[in-house]
Design a protein that fits this description.
single chain; 498 residues; alpha/beta; Rossmann fold; Serine Threonine Protein Phosphatase 5, Tetratricopeptide repeat; 2 domains; ten-stranded mixed beta sheet; 19 helices; 10 strands
């Protein structure tokens, strides 16, 4: 691999990292900076016990690729991606650590060997690779206009630039791409450690920063991540009032294992199953990705599942592809091209790009399966509005929705009414919904609780008893949900006796 890198580096030029990828109509600018998140602490000093510590804000490194005027005449070289980590930093010690970490991880990705363990000949080859021009120019003026935003999140141990080719490529086609270090909250180490909350807070911070850029259109936001970073992006999508309009999932690793192995991630998906933001997922065909495990969480979004034949995990980012054979590199290029079509289709409303998504590239490099979205159910507030409507068609439409969905639709709407002090209306909605879902134990549980609130003990008891009769055969509840429903019913019965 080192021989291949060294021999190729001298004649690469801007297009060599890209292979056969075609740039868009824009040049690519790159800038970096540090911001400080004063809402979070990050103290690398670790004062001794009993010694007062000074709260220090979390440093956020930000790298931005953006559309610029074409034909820039002073491209960066790859080494510059490391150098910019320590430029104009308000946290000099952290920046120096981050620069070394970024260089070392890139070496591990691209040569498969730690930097400190390179031989003299390997150091020469590595230096030649670092001297290779990239398709970006430092600190040039942005192109005129406002462009959709793509936030990038690397995987565990990854660096902000680990997919620099994709970032440059998207910027040349009219996207602002933002990446960061996402370092662990524990300041004793710099690598991404898989803490979801740290990632989500950093992502929110990056988007707020992007909103200050005159050339960034934050009304159109895509999330792109690799490995754990892909998991973080799906979790961000599932957050309440998520700003994410589309997600690109690069070999998340979840699709090769049981979802229960990723309990924290699964819990994040559970928080919002109703998101309609479309998703493009990639996996290696030879490892038999089971994308269907995401069906319950992505059913209301259009989804594309792309499999690539013979891609190792890190081949889905450009550092991992470096030095690999032509076949792997062409696969990576096909991945980048499909990402562009996906983003053009959903963030730029490009009808032709959207139409082409199902068409795999020639040569069988990718196989793309499309899953259509189910109609998303209304929110609790919308259900309440439809139920209260004096237009018969609205109530008929609501009845059809209740029949097609689980009891949560009616139960959550009733809870909204009850919490708002509209007790009789909340009970009325559940009574209306009960014949539509005659086998739902949870709806009867909710009806029992609602009737108890309004003082109808006889009706409450009848509903609780019916819930217990239905519970064993209720296929809409899994085992843990049945346990929770039974306990809620038993607690309700106890309350009746007081």
């Amino acid at each position: 691999m080192v021989v291949a890198l060294g021999s190729a580096a001298g004649g690469w030029g801007q297009s060599e990292f890209w292979g056969e990828l075609k740039a868009g109509k824009y040049g690519v600018g790159f800038r970096s900076l540090y911001q400080l998140d004063a809402a979070r602490s990050y103290d690398a000093d670790y004062p001794a016990p009993g010694v007062a510590s000074i709260k220090k804000p979390r440093p956020i490194f930000i790298g931005v690729w953006y559309p610029a005027a074409p034909l820039q005449d002073k491209a960066m070289v790859y080494r510059d991606y490391f150098r910019v980590v320590s430029v104009d930093s308000p946290v000099a010690e952290f920046a120096q650590r981050l620069r070394k970490f970024t260089r070392d991880m890139a070496c591990q990705y691209m040569l498969g060997k730690e930097f400190d363990k390179l031989t003299d000949d390997e150091r020469v080859a590595w230096d030649e690779v670092l001297a290779t021009p990239v398709f970006a120019t430092l600190n040039v003026a942005p192109a005129a206009g406002k462009f959709p935003v793509v936030i990038h999140h690397p995987g565990l141990g990854g660096t902000f630039d680990d997919n620099a080719v994709a970032c440059e490529y998207l910027a040349s086609h009219g996207y602002v791409v933002v990446s960061s270090a996402y370092q662990a909250a524990d300041s004793s180490m710099l690598k991404i450690d898989g803490d979801q909350e740290t990632s989500l807070e950093d992502l929110g911070f990056l988007l707020r920063y992007a909103s200050t850029l005159s050339f960034a259109d934050v009304s159109k936001v895509a999330a792109m991540g690799h490995s754990y970073g892909a998991q973080a992006m799906l979790a961000w999508r599932a957050g309440p009032n998520s700003p994410v309009d589309a997600v690109v999932v690069l070999d998340s690793t979840v699709e090769y294992r049981a979802l229960s192995d990723f309990a924290h991630f699964q819990a994040a998906l559970e928080r919002n199953r109703n998101s309609t933001a479309p998703v493009l997922m990639f996996g290696d065909k030879r490892r038999n990705p089971r994308f269907e495990m995401f069906d319950p969480y992505l059913q209301f979004a259009e989804r594309y599942e792309a499999t690539v034949d013979g891609m190792e995990h890190n081949d889905f980012v450009s550092q991992g592809v470096t030095g690999k054979g032509e076949g792997v590199r062409r696969n990576y290029e096909a991945v980048c091209e499909l990402i562009l079509r996906f983003l053009d289709g959903y963030l730029k409303a490009d009808a032709e790009a959207l139409k082409s998504l199902g068409a795999a590239p020639p040569g069988g490099l990718l196989q793309v399966a499309f899953k259509a979205a189910r109609a998303a159910p209304p929110t609790s507030a919308q259900v309440v509005k439809m139920y209260a409507s004096e237009v018969p068609a609205d109530v008929e439409a609501l009845a059809a929705l209740v029949k097609e969905n689980d009891a949560d639709l009616a139960v959550d709407a009733s809870a909204l009414l009850l919490d708002g002090g509209h007790k009789l209306e909340g009970v009325s909605l559940l009574k209306w919904a009960a014949p539509l879902l005659p086998r739902s134990a949870d709806l009867q549980r909710a009806l029992g609780e609602a009737l108890l609130i309004v003082g109808d003990k006889a009706g409450s008891r009848a509903a609780f008893e019916k819930a217990l009769l239905l519970l064993a055969d209720d296929v809409t509840l899994d085992a843990s949900q049945k346990v929770r429903t039974r306990k809620a019913v038993e607690d309700g019965v106890k309350a009746l006796l007081k």
